[in-house]
Amino acid sequence: MRHLVRSRSELQRQVTELVEQQAAISEVLRAVANSPHDLQPIFDTILINATRLCRATFGGFLLFEEKGYRTAARIGPNPVYAEQRPLGLVYPIRQGDPLARLTESGSPVHIADLAADQAYLRRDPLVVDLVELTDVRTCLLVPLLKDDELIGALGMTREQVQPFTDRQIDLVRDFAAQTTIALESTRRERQYREAQMALAHANRVAMMGQLTASITHEVKQPIAAARNNARAALNFMDKNPPDLGEVREALGCIVDDADRAGDIIDRIRDHIKKVPARKDAVEINDAILEVIALTRTEAANNSVSVRTQLAEGLPRVQGDRVQLQQVMLNLIVNAIQAMSGIGEGARELQISIDAVPSEGGVRVGVRDTGPGLSPESLSRLFEPFYTTKPEGMGMGLSICRSIIEAHGGRLWAIPCEPQGALFQFTIPAD
Ligand code: ADP
Asked: What CATH number is attached to the domain comprising 309?
């Protein structure tokens, strides 16, 4: 009846990876926000993060052009190479070479040992450069695709023959797919903020999907064990006379199984909480006004009027601008969704920001005139997986609370009279 308690290291690793991926995307978002008109810093940021994600030593950012691939950014490998093959250099595509394979398949091309590859033997320029000018041996090329259209590639390399794992390849591929959204946004500059939101959203959806997959995988085990134990208990009950000693033991096991399922969820939350937030001095008014601007269309489509009450002379808060914006985005989207269901009555979203000198920080409020919060809802809102929406994941508020707490603040909800809900959070000043 006993079962093996599986090691948690696999789950820990997955969560760490997800968090790293999230951080990498945040970096790219930040680069786009800081430099919407200049692509170079964005290319650099994408490359640095891709290299880090898959534990490559060096990397190149290649743009697909008519005549071949142009080197747009590079990390390493050495000054000689940088001097002889400056940025901007175009590598032609020659039949059968790695770049041609990438272009044709639109899929990653992984070469465990460049020196043993046919392209090297046939003196393909890129491969020869890598092997002879730089000592690079293992190479992974990942396409940058925008709606199936190839816009470029990320080249990840290692100096020793050390193949990338399937997991590392998946990580860079997912990351590359998400960054093309950021790149696309810079082409149409006026729309970059919308695209930034689309990226934040895509990232959230991807992260939620993966997180759910790992949680499901882990939680299924204790649930299956509990079911087996319950079956066994039933069988012992059916004995004549019932074997109550065995029934008791089985029930004890079920309690353990249930605890174990709970522990898994707690561990994941703790792990997410532990990820250190960036400590920028954030101008909260600006950060929030940006999110409001992003949600304007969504509000208008749902006939929601938005009012803002900003205070003057607020202190800057300390934290991660992108994360704080994600919290805001979540609260606003929740409020709009809550109001989209009500038939009659005004749909008003009120956003307020004020200083709370007693707590030495800033308080932000998001108030709606939706259906409000039932006692059940109020007590469970912040639980992971609590949702009343058909398509809901129920992770939004739980993650929001983790983010705010990681910033040293608090997040809570209050039912409003005569209707609606108010979500408030505080953030300490810088
Ligand atoms: P999801 O949006 O996926 O359901 P959340 O964690 O963001 O996940 O929200 C959990 C639940 O909290 C929602 O399903 C809803 O029942 C409730 N909720 C959140 N915001 C509001 C709100 N502004 N008004 C009423 N209920 C809300």
From this structure: 3.30.565.10
Is residue 421 in contact with ligand 1, taking CB distance under 6 Å?
A: yes
How far apart are alpha carbons 348 and 335 in whole angstroms? 9
Burial class, 167, CB count within 10 angstroms (exposed 0-12 / middle 13-18 / buried 19+) = exposed
> Rounded to the nearest whole angstrom, what is the distance from the C-alpha of residue 369 to the centroid of ligand 1?
14
- 74 has pLDDT over 80: yes
Cα–ligand 1 centroid distance for 422 (angstroms): 12
Q: Does residue 369 sit within a domain?
A: yes
Chain-centroid distance of CA 132 in Å reads: 38
Handedness of CA 364, 369, 375, 378 (dihedral sign): negative
From ligand 1's centre to the CA of 387, what distance in Å? 6
> Which tens digits make up the pLDDT trace of 297-323?
788 889 999 999 988 889 999 888 877
What's the confidence (pLDDT) of residue 249?
95
Residue 7 has pLDDT above 50, yes or no: no
Sign of CA dihedral 402, 404, 408, 409: negative
Check pocket membership of 396 for ligand 1, CB cut-off 6 A: yes
Pocket test for ligand 1, best of 381, 400, 419, 424 (most atoms within 8 A of CB): 381
Sign of the Cα pseudo-torsion (193, 196, 202, 207, in order)? negative
| Atom of ligand 1 at shortest range from CA of 388 | 14
> For ligand 1, what atom is nearest to the CA of residue 370?
24
Ligand 1 atom, smallest distance to 391 CA: 3
Contact status, residue 50 vs residue 25, Cβ threshold 8 Å: no
- Whichever domain contains 246, its CATH number is 1.10.287
Chain mean position to CA 264: 20
Asked if 174 and 228 sit in the same domain, the reply is no
CATH code, domain with 111 = 3.30.450.40
Q: What is the pLDDT of residues 108-148, one digit of tens each?
A: 999 999 999 998 988 988 899 888 888 889 999 999 998 88
Same domain, 384 and 268: no
Q: For the chain, what percent of residues have pLDDT higher than 70?
A: 87
